[in-house]
Design brief:
Layout lengths: L1 E8 L3 H8 L11 E4 L5 H12 L10 E8 L6 H16 L5 E6 L6 E7 L9 H6 L5 H17 L16 H8 L4 H14 L4 H10 L2 E5 L7 E5 L8 E2 H4 L5 H18 L3 H4 L30 H43 L14 H5 L17 H10 L5 H5 L12 H36 L2 H10 L1 H17 L12 H69 L1
Helix pairs in contact: 1-2, 3-5, 7-12, 10-19, 16-18, 16-19
Length: about 550
């Protein structure tokens, strides 16, 4: 699950950014990124200040600090960075500069995001524009909602909405631990009935069939109450105490969602699994009312074990039914997709032809290729931008999106080239020393051939050359050992061959690296513009989804009334 928090920064923005970008917390700055500003503390704070100077200057808040924490072992640093950047894109909508860093110094990964309080384009502050002058709880509520949506899309657990005003007693908590909570039983039974109901009215009818007593009075403050008949529950339980998903409105919404999913999958619950059978109350154990195979009516042995096993089986069956339903839906949808793909790739042959042979026309039929720039075809100057990108070597949107963030690229050989250059430079230096030694060697041999006063006089005359020779020989002895061939010192020819191999590899990588630099520089010109367009399209889709949800709520409300 992901936990989010947000607070203000009223001073020392540079110190805050310096903290979140510390090398010991971000693996030497590997998991640090920024938007519309530099990623270092000094540069980012200066860029923040430049934009802030264009604003009204009426707010004392300089920036905001968001933290998004994940459960231990739930995400990798790369996934945490991706989720954090998606959160920034949806929450800030490309209007505010930010610096993001993933910290790994604790048992759980967490993202730190510091964003400027001043809008890049209109100079308004985030405080005024986003919260409309109200408290920051408004900003946090939206932040958490967006974070939960993104986590759900990535298959990461989210923190369920807490139920306000309804605590859990010590007795009930103990019953939950032992698996005997009647509220849990009631929740499971209601959820099972919802799965097979077509609307709210049908749900209430099926509750009666499944031994769930209810009191529904829409005009009252407490609209809906439930009770399990024959299960030892004496009092009715208010629906809202079971959870936010068990109010009349939410039940109607969930039934509508289930029906919508069933319609989309072109199935009904009856096609998948057997509908829930009515529960026979323990107070009236009549053999004629039993749905299962007939048993001896007056056999009373082990009643406690039978009741407990039956209840456990019901809870297990309910969970299995839900899983089977959605698994069948996924399987059906996949089968339909496979069938459509198979039809598109292998056209259905004529009935008369048992083994159809491909004709020249069929073999030459052009295949419809997917547009690699489909995602940005609708933006302004799209054709001009795409032409420039392709001229720079960027041939698709997926390739362009690889330059959105500071992630390693397969064609970026900066480190490898630096390592190769260091190696062949050391060898070339050694070769140069060996050549220099050979040039000085005649003088040194002449010096060694003399003795006594003559040698001293010769050394005094050629002191610089002799000292240079001795230092050169010392350097060669210290550095030549690691290049030994079969335990023997390498010759100058061996070293030259090794150096040429390293240089040849460096040149090959240099071609790819140069092409990569061209791509990166070309992509940089349009990265911000394309990301902003993609964010706008995403926001349009989100607004449309929100509008559809609002309409669905109104329809359900009218149905209840």
């Amino acid at each position: 699950m992901a936990y989010t928090s947000i607070h203000t920064i009223r001073a020392t923005v540079s110190a805050a950014i310096a903290y979140i970008t510390r090398d010991d917390k971000t693996i030497d700055g590997l998991y640090v990124n920024s938007y519309a500003c530099r990623a270092d503390s000094a540069g980012a704070s200066e860029d923040f200040r430049a934009v802030r100077n264009t604003g009204t200057g009426r707010t004392q808040i300089l920036a905001y600090h968001m933290i998004q924490s994940f459960a231990p072992g739930e995400v990798t640093p790369e996934q945490a960075m991706q989720i954090g950047e998606e959160l920034c894109d949806r929450y800030l909508k490309g209007d505010y500069q930010y610096v993001i860093a993933v910290h790994h110094d604790k048992s759980h990964l967490h993202c730190h995001i510091i964003f400027n309080n001043t809008n890049l384009y209109n100079g308004l502050s985030f405080t005024t524009e986003h919260n409309q002058g109200r408290r920051t709880e408004r900003a946090w509520a939206e932040l958490r909602e967006i974070s939960d949506e993104i986590c759900a899309e990535h298959g990461i657990s989210v923190i369920s909405e807490p139920e306000k005003g309804h605590g859990v007693s010590h007795f009930e908590r103990n019953m939950q631990k032992e698996g005997k909570s009647w509220k849990d039983k009631l929740r499971v039974r209601i959820a099972e009935v919802m799965l097979y109901s077509r609307d709210f009215k049908d749900f209430l009818e099926k509750c009666s069939e499944c031994s769930i007593e209810y009191v529904y009075k829409p005009s009252n403050k407490v609209k809906l109450k439930f009770r399990l008949s024959g299960d030892g529950q004496q009092k009715f339980t208010r629906a809202d105490t079971l959870g936010a998903d068990f109010t009349p409105e939410r039940i109607a919404e969930q039934i509508a969602e289930i029906q919508e999913k069933l319609s989309a999958a072109n199935v009904t619950p009856d096609m998948l699994i057997e509908a829930p059978k009515p529960v026979v109350p323990k107070t009236e154990p009549k053999p004629t009312q039993t749905v299962t195979a007939p048993t001896k009516p007056k056999q009373s042995a082990e009643p406690e074990t039978i009741t407990e096993t039956s209840e456990t089986a019901k809870r297990k069956a309910a969970a299995e039914q839900v899983e089977k339903f959605f698994a069948a839906r996924r399987a059906r949808r996949q089968a339909q997709l496979d069938m459509l793909n198979a039809t598109a790739i292998n056209p259905k042959p004529e009935p008369s032809a048992r083994t159809p042979q491909p004709t020249p026309t069929e073999s030459k039929a052009p295949e419809k290729k997917e547009d690699p720039w489909k995602a940005i075809r609708g933006m302004g100057r799209a054709n001009e931008i795409i032409a420039d990108l392709e001229a720079g070597g960027v041939m698709s949107f997926s390739e362009l999106s690889g330059f959105f963030f500071n992630t390693p690229h397969s064609d970026d050989h900066t480190t490898e080239r630096a390592d190769l250059k260091k190696k062949f430079t050391a060898i070339d230096t050694l070769i140069a020393k060996m050549k220099h030694r050979d040039e000085l060697e005649p003088v040194y041999k002449e010096y060694q051939g003399k003795s006594g006063w003559s040698q001293s006089r010769f050394k005094k005359k050629n002191a610089a050359t002799i000292e240079d020779y001795e230092q050169t020989v010392k350097y060669i002895k210290e550095h030549i050992k690691k290049y030994a061939v079969d335990g023997k010192p390498p010759t100058m020819l061996d070293l030259l061959e090794k150096s040429n191999k390293l240089k040849s590899k460096w040149n090959r990588l240099n071609v790819e690296h140069t092409a990569f630099l061209t791509k990166r520089e070309t992509a940089k010109k349009y990265t911000r513009q394309v990301r902003q367009y993609i964010n706008e399209q995403q926001m349009k889709r989100e607004r449309e989804k929100s509008r559809q949800r609002t309409q669905a709520k109104h329809r359900n409300k009218n149905t209840l009334e």
